[in-house]
């Protein structure tokens, strides 16, 4: 890769190293300069630019990030489309992050251009939470380095998520003279909350004397109720492998695998099993909702990860929890304070809604509703909705107006997937695009971070292009409005941060929110698409006929 100042006459195809916003131009860093771009820069008096020119032995940053992300991410992870050399891996379910620390260190040591960062090994993750990010530092990575990274990964991913699987726990609590019922009641609620946090249930509970025979009978009863995890909380702490609680587990036909763990609080935890099901002698701290060594073990059991003596004895580094006030324990919030703490969540995938505007009168079509026109046997509007449904958008809302019943029926032709579509009625559809925009924004889920405003008459927009816009969206880095481009020409759909929703509802006429792009140029991110689908809207019979002809030729 060559980097430095480039004469403007030799700049076509170069990647711009620094943003250029002057003389009516708004070229972002990382833009690959087209012949048209070069002409505009020359007209603005620019004679040289700073940028990068790739050689055949280079791999573009996005291509390299995509390849490494796809290889490095295992089960339970969903990769995002790469943007600016970054591809993220997000959890698709709640569970435990499994991380191959040694090989990740080895990959990061291969070449300074290639990096991967992950959550700590065995971190608890929630759906849509970021687990890893692959970042190519310069605009390209050496092809040999990318290949070495892929060879190092091979067929074994570097990071994955072991999803929580339901466990049905049975809790046995023993009593001694003076044991208070309130303490036992509290332990039940704490255990139930812990089980809910890892997707399990507290199936049953028994309270018995602090006696091994009584413990054994209680375990047998819970086994008959279908429990597949046995928790025994003694009224007196376990102090030896031969103490009352382990003796009760053995009397129920179980065996003891390990006693003690290098985690504080939680040192006096006992591991055993009964007919292949885990049986745990709980340390006293397990009766408290505060994070402790029992949580480490319970989380791995729920994720069906190994938790034998070797794993328990390997928990010492990071096992000093005495001063820890909170840990990553997924649990239903039961108070305003807990809800506030839950709001301080780790990075997650942005919740982007797709809004398909399909209320127009097709006045330029000269009669029929273009949205109902079939292309390859599918109504035009259904093609636009299908792309949105196949994307990473968290919801799809279609705005209806003109011929609402017919358009809704066209969307229903998608079959079962159409059940996921929300609809919004725009009674003022004759007022133009702005009225549909207001109706649609008002119908979006309250928790979305942004919206892709899609047009029902753009049947060539693909789900991959929508995902590329979502991948580019990052308000923290100043990418609050993501606009698709092809060779420097802007198209649709546009992705908007929710901060603009109020301004968008205030627009009027048929131009939508286009003027807001100019008013917030510093927050606009142009996303090169490479194919013209984002530029094609079918407004006239001639445009529709030409598009159908191209579709037939491509088939």
From TrEMBL:
The UniProt record lists the keyword Transmembrane: no
GO terms assigned for molecular function: kinase activity; nucleotidyltransferase activity
Short name of any one Pfam family annotated for the protein: NTP_transf_3
Segments of this protein annotated with the region Disordered: 328-347
Matches recorded under Gene3D superfamilies: MoaB/Mog-like domain (3.40.980.10), Spore Coat Polysaccharide Biosynthesis Protein SpsA, Chain A (3.90.550.10)
Stretches assigned to the MoaB/Mog domain: 170-303
Keyword vocabulary terms for this entry: Kinase, Magnesium, Transferase
PANTHER family: MOLYBDENUM COFACTOR CYTIDYLYLTRANSFERASE
Stated name of the protein: 4-diphosphocytidyl-2C-methyl-D-erythritol kinase
Organism: Vineibacter terrae
């Amino acid at each position: 890769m060559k980097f430095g100042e480039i004469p403007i006459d030799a700049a076509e195809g170069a990647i711009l190293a620094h943003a250029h916003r002057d003389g009516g131009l708004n070229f972002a860093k990382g833009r690959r300069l087209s012949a048209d771009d070069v002409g505009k820069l020359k007209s603005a008096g620019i004679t040289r630019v700073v940028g990068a020119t790739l050689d055949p032995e280079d791999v573009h940053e996005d291509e390299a990030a995509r390849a490494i992300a796809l290889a490095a991410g295992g089960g339970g992870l969903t990769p995002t489309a790469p943007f600016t050399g970054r591809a993220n891996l997000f959890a698709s379910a709640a569970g435990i992050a499994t991380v191959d620390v040694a090989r990740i260190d080895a990959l990061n040591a291969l070449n300074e251009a290639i990096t991967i960062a992950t959550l700590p090994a065995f971190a608890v993750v929630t759906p849509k939470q970021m687990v890893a990010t692959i970042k190519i530092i310069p605009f390209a990575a050496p092809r040999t380095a990318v290949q070495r990274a892929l060879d190092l990964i091979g067929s074994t991913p570097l990071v994955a998520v072991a999803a929580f699987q339901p466990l049905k726990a049975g809790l046995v609590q023993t009593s001694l003279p003076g044991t208070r019922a309130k303490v036992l009641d509290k332990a039940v609620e704490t255990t139930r909350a812990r089980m809910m946090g890892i997707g399990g249930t507290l199936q049953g509970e028994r309270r018995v004397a602090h006696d091994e025979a009584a413990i054994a009978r209680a375990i047998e009863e819970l086994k008959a109720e279908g429990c597949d995890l046995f928790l025994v909380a003694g009224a007196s702490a376990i102090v030896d492998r031969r103490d009352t609680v382990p003796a009760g587990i053995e009397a129920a036909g179980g065996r003891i695998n390990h006693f003690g763990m290098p985690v504080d609080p939680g040192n006096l935890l006992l591991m055993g099993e009964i007919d292949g099901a885990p049986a745990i002698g709980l340390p006293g701290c397990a009766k408290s909702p505060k994070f402790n060594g029992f949580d480490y073990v319970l989380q791995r059991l729920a994720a069906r990860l190994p938790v034998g003596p070797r794993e328990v004895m390997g928990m010492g580094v990071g096992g000093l929890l005495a001063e820890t006030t909170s840990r990553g324990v997924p649990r239903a919030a039961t108070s305003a304070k807990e809800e506030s703490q839950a709001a301080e969540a780790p990075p997650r995938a942005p919740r982007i809604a797709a809004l398909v505007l399909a209320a127009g009168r097709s006045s330029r079509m000269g009669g029929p509703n273009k949205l109902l026109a079939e292309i390859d046997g599918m109504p035009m509007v259904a093609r636009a909705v299908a792309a949105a449904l196949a994307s990473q958008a968290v919801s799809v809302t279609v705005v209806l107006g003109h011929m609402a019943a017919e358009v809704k029926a066209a969307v229903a032709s998608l079959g079962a997937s159409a059940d996921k579509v929300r609809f919004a009625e725009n009674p003022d559809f004759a007022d133009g695009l702005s009225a549909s925009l207001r109706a649609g924004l008002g119908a979006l889920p309250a928790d979305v971070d942004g919206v892709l405003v899609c047009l029902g008459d753009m049947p060539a927009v693909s789900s991959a292009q929508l995902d590329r816009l979502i991948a580019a969206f990052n308000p923290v880095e100043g990418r609050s409005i993501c606009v698709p481009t092809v060779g420097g020409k802007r198209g649709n759909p546009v992705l908007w941060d929710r901060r603009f929703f109020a301004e968008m509802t205030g627009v009027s006429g048929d131009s939508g929110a286009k003027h807001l792009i100019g008013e917030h140029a510093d927050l606009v991110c142009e996303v090169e698409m490479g194919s013209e689908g984002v530029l094609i809207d079918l407004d006239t019979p001639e445009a529709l006929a030409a598009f159908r002809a191209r579709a037939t030729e491509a088939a």
